[in-house]
């Protein structure tokens, strides 16, 4: 049976919220989706019937391997769509999230397989996040927040944890794009804002921005 749009939104929330032990609470889901707790409980009982979660009253949900796979496949459709919009339709990376939110609910597997083929099977989306494969597997990345870096370090901008169009436009204005080399020049004691060097230019990033930017060494 096909998943509904609402079920897919819940699955995607599980993907983003599940911890290293495969657990997530009803309260976390409620806040993330802005849905009342009784509605979340009812949906998770349905998910338990589908063997996507283990549901016990007053305990965190345990997301099963089947549940993780179903969630990853929804995310796969979203991230493939974002990549297609950027690479083949010339959208800016700040303009693709809302369109992908709509197209991710298309049920045709052939549609997304063809998209994957046209893109030559990309491993990452335009925001640097890994695209799950057809089996729901994801490439592990060893990334850290830019805010965790020290003065003098040079790192590579690899991903963002927020694909909000306002934030991505903020990065565009500073010519800070994926795979850009970043040298940390100064960190202010007062507000932890960071002066970085990109090529021959310097930029100042807020603490909030450095928390969202993920880098690799």
TrEMBL record:
Chief location bin: cytoplasm
A Pfam family it matches: Fe_dep_repr_C
Keywords recorded for this protein, A-Z: Activator, Cytoplasm, DNA-binding, Manganese, Repressor, Transcription, Transcription regulation
Keyword Transcription in record: yes
SMART domains with a match to the protein in the record: HTH_DTXR
Molecular-function annotations in GO: DNA binding; DNA-binding transcription factor activity; protein dimerization activity; transition metal ion binding
SUPFAM superfamilies per record: Iron-dependent repressor protein, dimerization domain, Winged helix' DNA-binding domain
Gene3D superfamilies per UniProt: 2.30.30.90, Iron dependent repressor, metal binding and dimerisation domain (1.10.60.10), Winged helix-like DNA-binding domain superfamily/Winged helix DNA-binding domain (1.10.10.10)
Residue stretches making up the HTH dtxR-type domain: 1-64
Domain of life: Bacteria
Protein's cellular compartments: Cytoplasm
Keyword Heme appears in the UniProt entry: no
Cellular compartments per GO CC: cytoplasm
Chain's role: In the presence of manganese, represses expression of mntH and mntS. Up-regulates expression of mntP.
Entry similarity comment: Belongs to the DtxR/MntR family.
Known partners and oligomeric status: Homodimer.
PANTHER family xref list: IRON (METAL) DEPENDENT REPRESSOR, DTXR FAMILY, TRANSCRIPTIONAL REGULATOR MNTR
Protein name: Transcriptional regulator MntR
Organism listed in the record: Chryseobacterium elymi
């Amino acid at each position: 049976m096909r998943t509904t749009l609402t079920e897919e939104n819940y699955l995607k929330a599980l993907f983003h919220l599940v911890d290293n032990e495969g657990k997530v609470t009803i309260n976390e889901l409620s806040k993330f989706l802005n849905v009342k707790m009784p509605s979340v409980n009812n949906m998770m009982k349905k998910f338990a019937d589908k063997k996507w979660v283990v549901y016990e009253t007053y305990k965190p949900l345990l997301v099963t391997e089947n549940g993780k796979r179903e969630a990853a496949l929804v995310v796969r459709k979203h991230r493939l769509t974002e990549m297609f919009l950027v690479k083949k339709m010339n959208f800016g990376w700040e303009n693709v999230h809302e369109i992908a939110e709509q197209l991710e609910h298309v049920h045709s597997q052939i549609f997304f397989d063809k998209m994957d083929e046209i893109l030559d099977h990309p491993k990452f989306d335009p925001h640097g996040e890994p695209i799950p494969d057809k089996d729901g597997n994801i490439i592990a990345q060893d990334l850290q927040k830019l805010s965790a870096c020290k003065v003098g370090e040079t790192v590579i901008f690899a991903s963002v944890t927020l694909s909000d169009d306002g934030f991505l436009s903020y990065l565009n204005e500073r010519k800070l794009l994926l795979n850009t080399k970043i040298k940390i020049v100064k960190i202010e004691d007062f507000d932890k804002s960071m002066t970085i060097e990109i090529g021959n230019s310097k930029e100042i990033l807020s603490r909030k921005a450095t928390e969202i930017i993920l880098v690799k060494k």
